Structures are given as C-alpha cells and as structure tokens.
Amino acid sequence: MVDTLLNETLLMNGTNGSLDNSLNGTMSIHEQSSQCLPSWVLNAIGVKSVYASDIAVAIVNILFAIFAFLSNLAVIATIIRTPSLHAPVNVLLCGLAAADCLTGLVVQPVYASWRFLLHHLGEPCRLVHLYQASRSLPFLFVGCTFLNLAITSADRLYAVSRPLAYRTAVTSRGMAKIVVSAWVVWIIYICLMETVVPKAIYEPMENITLTLLIIIPVGGHILTFLAIRTNNRKILCATHNLQHATLYKRAKKAARDMAFYIVATLLSLVPLVILLNFENSVIVGNLLFPWAATATMLVSSVNPVIQIRRNTALRKALKTVFKRTTVE
What we know:
InterPro entries: GPCR_Rhodpsn, GPCR_Rhodpsn_7TM. Pfam families: 7tm_1. Keywords: Cell membrane, G-protein coupled receptor, Glycoprotein, Membrane, Receptor, Transducer, Transmembrane, Transmembrane helix. Residues 71-328 form the G-protein coupled receptors family 1 profile domain. The structure is a single chain. The protein is mainly α. The chain has 13 helices and two strands, in the order αββαααααααααααα. Strands 1-2 form a two-stranded antiparallel ribbon. Helix 4 (88-117) packs antiparallel against helix 12 (299-310). The longest helix is centred in the middle third of the chain and has 38 residues, at 199-236.
C-alpha cells in the first residue's frame, strides 16, 4: 500500500509538458528504467502541471511538518514533566506522539524535498537515495503509528475488562518497555525487508504487514467497546465498590479517546483507497497521488490536536508547563 502511495504513475510527455495518454511508461516501484530512477520519475521532469502540483505539495508538507514536530514534542515534554500524567495509557500517548513527531521531523521533509528537487536538480540520478528514502520512511513510521495503536487496543481491552487487575499488573515502566521493544522489533523487520527480502515478494509482504497492522487495532477496539457494553451495567450498577467503578470509568474514557486516533488514521488512508481503483489513470497518477500521500502524513498534525482536545488533564498540564517555561 505504501508503495502505491509513493508510486505516482507519472505517465508524462517530458518534451512538450502535456499529459501522455499512453500507458507505456507505467512501471513497478522496483523496476528501473535507467541506471538509477524509473521512467515515470524521469518523464515527469519539465511537466508544468506536475511541477506546480509538486511545489504546492512541498509547501504543505513543510508547513505541517513544523506543526507536527512542535505540537507532538510539546505533548511528549508535558507528559514527561508532569508526574500526575505518568500512567500506562499516557506512555502509549507518548509512543504515538513520538511516531508523529518523527513523521514531522523526517518523513514529511524528505518527501517534500524529493518532490521539489525532482524538478530542480540537473542530474536526477543524484536523487536515487532520496527517492529510496521517500519510499521506505513512510512505511516505517506509518507502521510505528499502527503498532502503537495495536498495543493500545490490547491495553484498553484489558483495562475495561479487569480494571482492578489492570491497575496492579500494568505499570508505566512496564508499558514503556513494551513500546520500546515493539519499536526495535519493527525497525529490525523493516531493515530486513529493505535489504534481504527479494523484490518478487516485497510488495505482497508489505501489503500483508500493513493489513495486519490495521486489522489488529481496529479489531482490538471493537472488542473493547463490546466489553464496555457488556460491563457497563455490571460494574456501574451492580457493584458497591466505588474504586472499581471509578477505575472502570477512566478506562472507558481512555478507550473512547483512543478510538478517535484510529478513526483519524484510517480516514487519512481514504484518499489512497479511493485512488487505488484508478491508479492507471494518467491524471490520477500524475496529480492526485502526491496529495493522497500528503493526506496520510497529515494525520501526524491531527493526532496532537485530538490528544489536547480530548484529554483535560493533558491540556491543563500543557498550560502549566508552558507558563513555567515562559517564566524561567
């Protein structure tokens, strides 16, 4: 899916600056038309409509990259500097914010640079490493986001199903170890895919991997809300344990908040899903796929807004940390 995201089928006539209606230039992301870059890249150079679109794509990505980096960094710093926020669920929020922060710091600038320099560098073959990075990095960090959401879905299911046991069994330190370990395993897996996996099975493996990363958090949150529906009356009405009811309410609210992140992330993929049915269309391939890629990366700017808007404690702590920093 990410290959398709970045494999804008640039079927252009590079000599007259108009769209080429033939499909002869279509190539797979792994096929090379020259010693360095595929033909759909080389044929896009000099096409005015693609140039104008790519300039706009670069500007949008850079502006939102700055916002994504700063806003997610503020969320991470606030959680770290506020002891009352040192809870397992907020460790998961830090993991999500870290992935989004790195998207703003690395992925969006790399993608913007790739689209911009394609039209301004006299020797396109010098961009081969930037081209490869623009393919690999989104896969890496989109995967990190969904990996965090998958861990979160399991965490929330446990929290709403057994709130008292969850409180004693799950700690912030333990959750941090789980998140870090998952990231390390994921990075190793991506490195192996990029260096060891044969080209013939690379794309099927990538699609299967991302499909699992989507299905697991979505399925986990569906099970979580089914558990909430089952336990609502039993815990809130039948029990006389006030602590049990309070913990359950907190876990239920956190589960609902996390659902917003999943919805936002899935919505960011909608343009890609729609365009996949028209990937052989000249106009779609040349002018719309870069914007679909951008929409996917813009979720890194949306998530911190959701966190601050939905989490009252985080919002108050953010104001306190900001005032304290300003005074110092």
